[in-house]
Every structure is written in structure tokens, then in C-alpha cells.
Write a structure and sequence with these properties.
- This protein is an all-alpha fold.
- Helix 1 crosses helix 12, helix 2 packs across helix 12 and helix 4 crosses helix 6.
- The radius of gyration is 23 Å and the shape is globular.
- This is ABC transporter permease.
- It is found in: Cell membrane.
- Belongs to the binding-protein-dependent transport system permease family. CysTW subfamily.
Length: 270
């Protein structure tokens, strides 16, 4: 009887957590079909916000920059972060602890500190670049570099646990069997840590799409992403087309997760 009660409490608690997590998302999705601009009342079913979404040049422009920056920054950060994680994993003693603490600093720092720091760095570098004939100013490149910078630590933290699960002598064993260091990396190490790399890629992609503070401090005229665009809309009232866009993004991410999990279960034979 006591075990059944404990099991019921655990399940009820889990269901309660999911309700709190997904109720706002479900509400947003429902009101993306609301005929009224107000989320205070239901005025009937409509698809006009989805139609207006693709006709809104500002939102489409922000979406374009958001996706481009997220894709490029996540891929570059994943490559750099994976190589950095492998290097850190092979280190020992104080140097390894020092680099791990340095890697954790951007994760623990408030975003506003990171954003202002990167902005200050660009302001310091721009005059030096202008002196040698390079026209440096805030814009797409500065935002992209900022996103790559703050994504790298998350990739490192995603890959390191997979490296720790590997046998300590797996690389030496491969080299003793005649493999070159490059071959051992490509055919032995990387396939073993692929789940961690993929998790780091997804985290970097999500962090890039979600970021506002760092983007706000490192962007320039004519370059904006969704978070900045939505913030500018909040002063006058959120356009219901944003609800439609958020719904489409949520469905896309959910579909990708289902496809990835299905492939993983299929490869395991489950």
C-alpha cells in the first residue's frame, strides 16, 4: 500500500511538472489560431496570423539572420569545442583544472556581463583594424563571432562526459595496432563521442536562437534576430504573428527530435 502511494505521488509530481512546463506553450499555440489580437478572449478560429507571418518583411528578415547565425555559429562552435574538449581531456593536473574553470566562467557569468565584455573588445579592436584599412563596424560579423564565442563552452561541457566514458588507453591501443593519430581520431574517438557532439550542436543551436542580451550588444544597423525584434515589438504590443512563428518553430523542433530518437532506437534494434 505504501509503495503504491509513493508511486502515485511520484507520477503525480511528474505530471504536475510537465503541466507547468507545457501549459504556456499550449496556450501560445492555441491563441496563434485566435481571430483576435488579444489573448484575453477567444474570438474564433483563423489562419490569418500564419498568412501575415510570411508577409511580414521585418519578421522574415529577423528569422533569416537568426537561422543563418544559429547554423554557422553552432557548426563552428561544435568543431572548435570538440577539439578543445579532446585537448582538455588529455591534459592532467593543474593545467586541466585551470582550463576547466576558465571554460565554466562564461557559463556561470550573467549574459549581460558576457555581452558587454564582447562589445568592449570589439570597440577596442575596431580602431586598430581601421588603421590597417579594414572597415570594422558592428553588424552581422560581430554578432556571429559573439555567438560562436559563447557557444563553445557549452559544446565542451557536452563532449567531455563522453570522453570520460572512453577507456583510458583506447588511443594507445589503436596506435599500437598500426593506426595513425588522424585515423584513430576519425574512426575510433569521434564515433564513440558522437552523441555528445550532437548534443553540443543542438545546445549551441538552441542557445544561439534564444539569445537576446549578447545579440543586442553586438549587433549593428540593419542586422537583427528574432529575440531583438520581439523585444522591440513588446513596447507596442506583440504581433500575433509571433505566436504563429513560435508554434511553427516548436513543431519543427519536436519533429526533429522524434526523427532523431526514432533513428537512434532503430539503430539499436529496439
Amino acid at each position: 500500500m505504501i509503495r503504491k502511494l509513493e508511486s502515485f505521488i511520484k507520477r503525480f509530481y511528474l505530471i504536475l511538472i510537465f503541466i507547468f512546463l507545457y501549459t504556456p506553450i499550449v496556450t501560445l499555440m492555441v491563441f496563434s489560431f485566435n481571430d483576435s489580437k488579444s489573448m484575453g478572449k477567444w474570438s474564433g478560429f483563423t489562419l490569418r496570423w500564419y498568412s501575415q507571418l510570411f508577409q511580414n518583411a521585418r519578421i522574415m528578415e529577423a528569422l533569416k539572420y537568426t537561422i543563418i547565425i544559429a547554423v554557422i555559429s553552432s557548426v563552428v562552435a561544435t568543431i572548435i569545442g570538440t577539439l578543445a574538449a579532446i585537448g582538455i581531456h588529455r591534459m592532467k593536473g593543474l593545467p586541466k583544472k585551470t582550463l576547466l574553470n576558465i571554460n565554466n566562467l562564461p557559463v556561470l557569468n550573467p549574459d549581460i556581463v558576457t555581452g558587454i565584455s564582447i562589445m568592449s573588445l570589439f570597440i577596442f579592436i575596431f580602431p586598430l583594424l581601421n588603421k590597417i584599412g579594414i572597415n570594422a563596424q558592428f553588424g552581422f560579423t560581430t554578432m556571429l563571432l559573439a555567438h560562436i564565442t559563447f557557444n563553445i563552452p557549452y559544446v565542451v561541457l557536452s563532449v567531455l562526459p563522453k570522453l570520460r566514458q572512453l577507456p583510458s588507453n583506447i588511443t594507445e591501443a589503436a596506435l599500437d595496432l598500426g593506426a595513425t593519430p588522424g585515423y584513430a581520431m576519425r574512426k575510433i574517438i569521434l564515433p564513440q563521442i558522437k552523441p555528445g557532439i550532437f548534443a553540443g550542436l543542438l545546445m549551441a543551436f538552441t542557445m544561439s536562437i534564444d539569445d537576446f542580451v549578447i545579440s543586442f550588444f553586438t549587433t549593428g544597423p540593419g542586422v537583427t534576430n528574432l529575440s531583438i525584434e520581439i523585444y522591440s515589438m513588446a513596447r507596442k504590443g506583440i504581433n500575433p504573428s509571433i505566436n504563429a512563428l513560435s508554434t511553427l518553430m516548436f513543431i519543427t523542433v519536436l519533429t526533429l527530435l522524434l526523427i532523431v530518437n526514432r533513428k537512434e532506437f532503430t539503430s539499436r534494434g529496439e
